[in-house]
Amino acid sequence: MQNTPIKLYDTSVIGFSNMTDDAVYALEQNFGAHHYDRLKVVVRTAQGSWITDIDGRKYLDCLAAYSAANLGHHHPKVVNALMRALVGNYASVISNVIYTDPLAMFLSKTAEFVPQLGPRFGRNGNKVMPKNGGVESVETAIKMARYYGFKEKNIPDGKQEIIVFNNNFHGRMTTVISFSTQQNYRAGFGPLTPGFVSVEFGDLDAVKAAINKNTCGILVEPLQGEGGMRIPPAGFLKGLREIADDHDLLLLLDEIQVGLGRTGKNFCFEHEDVVPDGLILGKALSGGLIPLSAFVTNAKLMDLAFHVGSDGSTFGGYPLACVAGVSALEVLEDENLAKASAIKGKELKQHLMKIAVRSKDITEVRGKGLFIGIEVKHGNAMMFCRKLLEMGIIVNDCHGHTIRISPPLNISESEIGFLAECLEEVFLK
Ligand SMILES: Cc1ncc(COP(=O)(O)O)c(C=O)c1O
Prior knowledge:
single chain; alpha/beta; Aspartate Aminotransferase, domain 1; Aspartate Aminotransferase, domain 2; seven-stranded mixed beta sheet; four-stranded mixed beta sheet; 36% helix
């Protein structure tokens, strides 16, 4: 049977409505899990750096879905690729027992976009395991480190240990919350998964002290996002690399939030000229339009750890997500968004530091590229976020003390100007 193109119908879109804000809040309250404390805005549309609420009020999105909207909302190139795929009956969900060209293209594009990982295992190229949400790819990385420990280091299966860091955030599933140091992420959700040792973020001596005969890997966020926009001392990643080499451990970086241009380089590890053995990507990987994450590693390690039946996912690497993934990586390259993030982030940070000097409420401004945290006194970051919301700026706090500023990487100069004006107003007037 021949494939016939789908026609778009000019009828209302299912899922949209003319509901009032209060009706939306009530439906969520009654029918949703209460697992987020949301800002009181109901979004109707989003484009570029702006989101528009149900009443047509516009907000500059300086949170960008925690980096998922690095390309801005609905980047036309990614939207176009998806529309063509859908209207042309090109790609949807296909059983994983069949090949698809979007997956092949996404795997090769991603493998080549990432510098050679784990070069001590040989320059074999990279291989990619696609998944959906970021946490799934974190778990894939954990599986690989454990398997490596078992097969290559003769650690008895079940005894493998991975070193992680206090204040980490790698997602919300059972294994990953098991090594969270946030009590409220894990309390009551036991039994927790063993095999992790957590040490102070940035402390290389603590890492060395935590190593024993069963240690197989180190899992770290190069900068901690959820943990409070924290930046470790210079040389931390280099130090971890050396320790991993000396003790034959796999160094796994979670760049779900800080990768793909966010900090002014395509990958955060490039700031320290260090290459990990495994890299976890997510959020912006599909331009923020479809859940898509990936674990990338040296081809030899991927082939060592995963065989038919040892991993998989129905939607992991499904064609529609891969179409978005390929076009999102192209946008990142073509528009040189990492460089844009470096330049605009530097300007914005300098501006914020000047505000900080004059403000009685700010203790520190820190960040890399367009990943910026403003540390405020008295743990009342949310109060400032609410004031900014009234002025048309969306930001959020981490742990009460830090305001997180992470707008789309292609935010314009005038939009940054608007953000800076509002911050000045909130902190200085
Ligand atoms: C560093 C990091 N790792 C993992 C995750 C989990 O990703 P997801 O929420 O897509 O599962 C997040 C999400 O915020 C993150 O910031």
